[in-house]
Amino acid sequence: MRFLTGKPDYDLTYDDVFMAPRRSSVTSRLDVDLTSTDGLGLPLPLVVANMTAISGRRMAETVARRGGIAVIPQDLPTDIVANAIAKVKSAHTVFDTPLTIDPHATVGEALMLLPKRAHQVVVVVDQDGAPIGTVSEADLAGMDRFSQVHEAMSSDLTLVSPDATPTEVFDELSAHRHRAALAVADGRLVGLMTIKGALRAALYTPALDASGRLKIGVAVGISGDVEARVEALLEAGADVLVMDTAHGHQERMISAVERCHAVVEASDRTVPIVAGNVVTADGTADLIEAGADVIKVGVGPGAMCTTRMQTGVGRPQFSAVLECAAEARESGKSVWADGGVRHPRDVALALAAGAGAVMIGSWFAGTHESPGELLYASDGRPYKESFGMASARAVRARTRSQSAFERARAALFEEGISSSRMYLDPARPGVEDLLDFIVSGVRSSCTYAGARDLVEFANQAIVGVQSASGYNEGRPLHSSW
Ligand SMILES: NC(=O)C1=CN([C@@H]2O[C@H](COP(=O)(O)OP(=O)(O)OC[C@H]3O[C@@H](n4cnc5c(N)ncnc54)[C@H](OP(=O)(O)O)[C@@H]3O)[C@@H](O)[C@H]2O)C=CC1
Ligand SMILES: Nc1nc2c(ncn2[C@@H]2O[C@H](COP(=O)(O)O)[C@@H](O)[C@H]2O)c(=O)[nH]1
Predict the structure, then answer these.
(1) Which of 47, 170, 282, 329 is the most exposed place for a label (fewest CB within 10 A)?
(2) Where does the chain bind K(+) (predicted)?
(3) Does residue 185 sit in the same domain as residue 219?
(4) Does 437 fall in a domain?
(5) How many Å apart are CA 449 and CA 447, to the nearest integer?
(6) Is there a single domain that holds both residue 233 and residue 379?
(7) Is residue 75 within 6 Å of ligand 1 at its C-beta?
């Protein structure tokens, strides 16, 4: 990447910069290869942040099916994490995991299940797991909540083989005008695919491990028994270990990364270690020396973050990524740009600055796949609650096993928001809708830079610095002025 008119001597946020188009021989946005350049080779350079309100197993399997990866937060007990890993590893790599219900369950129960997946279908299965009907919101509308699901279900089903290609499923659904195809093996329901899902399955490549199962990452904090946690996570099948703390450039962290590295080296697994968060070349170099493969960059840009206001510490994210990525490259390593992403352009700019992948948290909180319950505001808008991992709420949960005194002391140091409403975008209520949105933006950015892949993109991007009015000029107007 080079600056259009020279590098300024102050630091820049994503909003401060723009990309200039340049001569290109890339004729189609579909010719761009978005494989991550962080050494993980993810087909999609996107990572779901290790935040309790955002990253659970539904999120993990959905994002991995489209080529990215989710990181399960460090606050969860290891046995629960192992269970989440097992579920994701057993999920179908092409078909969605269906929501299922007993025919004698109530309409109220079906209505509770529907928002759990963006495909908005619940499959009615018999005691042998065979599909006998489906219900959608339209089928349940106006029904008594205590009536039974079999009274509302539609039993005209599109059944396909789990080996059917996305194009075959697309054609079947178009022909039958059905919402979802049900994949059945040996009479049992094994997956579900909507028409949009079929299109996506044809366009995206899943992120798979060496055994052809979906990938998943897990975070490890620096408090507690790092070695025991890492050993257990390796055993459970985690594909990436993310050593994570607010101040990644501290000696306790460096020691934790060294110990994590030693456990991985002694195991029979080759699992990359991501460590952070830092925002300087020195921090990057120290974590790489300790054994990290990827450095997580970002102090204070996160939507749930109060660090900069509390402490004055942090760094504008574009400059932080640019500097840390350059430092990591010197050792053949890479960085994840973590936090502050609110538009597809921010992802493109992070990749232009040299990030190997981009980590997103809060933007994905307002989706069907985030772990929280779907709630409704007084104006009827659906939302999910989100909170920061350094908020009083998260600290209370993390310190559950400590003494009352230790908990009270820890609570003094909150650096995050305890409650925020992340509204579901009516046009993009599922995380895959957001992935489509981001991917189309980033593919297009690459072609403007004449880049066929993300290595070329980071080499060829030309970035300029803009004023606040320059940024505002680029914002669309949804009504006249
Ligand atoms: N990217 C960002 O800008 C930030 C991210 N976070 C996220 O919040 C989560 C919790 O992180 P964290 O608070 O580190 O929790 P941890 O539970 O991992 O604890 C951090 C440990 O480091 C010590 N420590 C020393 N200096 C600091 C410091 N300046 N900030 C925080 N801890 C310090 C703490 O000791 P003691 O309590 O005694 O001081 C504690 O023992 C993580 O997911 C992290 O990524 C949090 C803040 C900023
Ligand atoms: N200072 C804090 N930073 C936090 C907290 N919880 C999470 N985070 C960081 O934000 C990113 C995600 O950023 P987003 O803009 O996409 O939401 C996450 O990965 C952490 O690094 C917090 O409580 N305080």
Answers:
(1) 282
(2) 300, 302, 305
(3) no
(4) yes
(5) 5
(6) yes
(7) no
Q: Is 250 in the pocket of ligand 1 (CB under 6 A)?
A: yes
Q: Do residues 74 and 136 both lie within one domain?
A: no
Q: Are residues 71 and 21 in the same domain?
A: yes
Per-residue pLDDT tens for 135-177?
Answer: 999 999 989 999 999 999 999 999 999 999 999 999 999 998 8
Q: Which residues neighbour 401 within 8 Å (Cβ) at sequence distance 6 or greater?
A: none
Does the active-site annotation cover 324? no
Runs of H (alpha helix) within 225-280 = 226-236, 251-266
Counted domains in the chain: 2
Q: What is the pTM of this model?
A: 0.96
Residue 479 lies in a domain: no
Query: Does any ligand 2 atom lie closer than 6 A to the CB of residue 49?
Result: yes
Judged by its nearest atom, the ligand closest to the C-alpha of residue 342 is: 2
Q: Domain holding 124: CATH number?
A: 3.10.580.10
392 and 460 together in one domain:
yes
- Which residue range forms the structural domain that includes residue 303? 2-92+207-473
SS3 label, residue 249:
coil
What spacing in Å lies between the alpha carbon of 266 and ligand 2's midpoint? Answer: 32
Tell me the ipTM for this assembly: 0.96
Annotated binding site: 244-246, 298-300, 302, 305
What is the number of other CB atoms lying within 10 angstroms of the CB of residue 444? 14
Which tokens is 372 given?
């929280």
Which residues 6+ apart lie within 8 Å of 429 measured at CB?
A: 118, 367, 368, 382
Contact 13, 317 (CB under 8 A): yes
Nearest ligand 1 atom to the CA of 245 is 14
Upper half-sphere CA count for residue 174 (Cβ side, 13 Å): 10
303 lines ligand 2 (CB under 6 A): yes
The residue out of 203, 220, 244 marking a domain boundary is: 203
Q: How many CA atoms lie within 13 A of 37 on its CB side?
A: 23
Kindly tell me the sign of the dihedral angle through the C-alpha atoms of 27, 33, 34, 39: negative
**Judgement on whether residues 271 and 289 belong to the same structural domain of the protein:** yes
**Residue list, annotated binding site for NADP(+):** 244-246, 298-300
Question: Same structural domain for residues 238 and 360?
Answer: yes
CA dihedral 32, 238, 94, 338 (to 10 degrees): -40
Q: Note the pLDDT tens digit of each residue in 311-337.
A: 999 999 999 999 999 999 999 999 999
Question: Best of 220, 245, 278, 412 to mutate for ligand 1, by most ligand atoms within 8 A of CB?
Answer: 245
Asked if residue 423 has its Cβ within 6 Å of ligand 1, the reply is no
Phi/psi of residue 161, each to 5°?
-80, 150
- Does 287 lie in the same domain as 353? yes
Among 203, 226, 242, identify where a domain stops: 203
